[in-house]
């Protein structure tokens, strides 16, 4: 076939019979390519590549035809993992990302991540005394100096650049509109009260600071 864009293929697990349907954007069959799906990759790691076979289902001349052929093949062979005898996660085509196309799956993965990273599953579990206060590596004078040097002068991403609103001044009407839009119940902090701990923290942060004349004028 001339002007081949890609092909669809089927991978079969010779031990349990489960299959995986995939596509490859290549004009020729790549024998060493066994898909990029998470489930099929896990299965290959578990059973060994020697226990899987791969065969081409068809060649296609456009991306649209290739995507549709993959969708049709997944439906035909019922290779979606939800049927219990396949390794495909989604329906195929350009919609192969489970988290992008499945809100329920996304919520499930996020919940699992929260559980895995809580308590002893967190890499910093038990290290609070090792990184607290002055023991925090980012609070060391030498590290702070490195950061200042990296982000100052030409090292700063905004060096020599001006923002989109540079030189512009907000009109009185615009200021009043902005004030109305962010006052009262429209304010994100409406009805909220700062805790005593937060007040004490802010007090420590700003104690001893001297406000510049320019800042006073702006206020």
UniProtKB/TrEMBL annotation:
InterPro entries: GIY-YIG_endonuc (IPR000305), GIY-YIG_endonuc_sf (IPR035901), NUMOD3 (IPR003611). Signal peptide: none annotated. Transmembrane segments: none annotated. Pfam families: NUMOD3 (PF07460). SMART domains: GIYc (SM00465). Coiled coil: none annotated. SUPFAM superfamilies: GIY-YIG endonuclease. Residues 5-93 form the GIY-YIG domain. To endonucleases of group I introns of fungi and phage. This is GIY-YIG nuclease family protein.
């Amino acid at each position: 076939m001339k002007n081949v864009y890609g092909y669809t293929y089927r991978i079969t697990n010779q031990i349990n019979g489960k299959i995986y349907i995939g596509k490859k954007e290549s004009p020729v069959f790549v024998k060493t390519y066994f898909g990029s799906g998470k489930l099929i990759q896990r299965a290959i790691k578990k059973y060994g590549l020697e226990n899987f076979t791969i065969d081409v289902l068809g060649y296609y001349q456009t991306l649209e035809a290739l995507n549709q052929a993959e969708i049709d093949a997944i439906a035909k062979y019922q290779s979606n993992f939800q049927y219990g005898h396949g390794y495909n996660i989604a329906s195929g085509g350009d919609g192969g990302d489970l988290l992008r196309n499945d809100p329920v799956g996304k919520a499930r993965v996020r919940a699992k991540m929260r559980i895995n990273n809580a308590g002893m599953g967190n890499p910093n579990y038990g290290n609070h005394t090792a990184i607290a206060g002055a023991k925090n590596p980012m609070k060391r004078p030498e590290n702070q100096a490195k950061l200042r040097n990296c982000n100052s002068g030409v090292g700063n991403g905004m060096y020599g650049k001006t923002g989109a609103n540079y030189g512009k001044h907000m009109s009185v009407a615009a200021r009043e509109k902005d004030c109305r839009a962010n006052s009262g119940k429209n304010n994100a902090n409406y009805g909220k009260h700062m805790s005593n701990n937060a007040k004490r923290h802010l007090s420590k942060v700003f104690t001893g600071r001297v406000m510049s004349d320019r800042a006073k004028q702006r206020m």
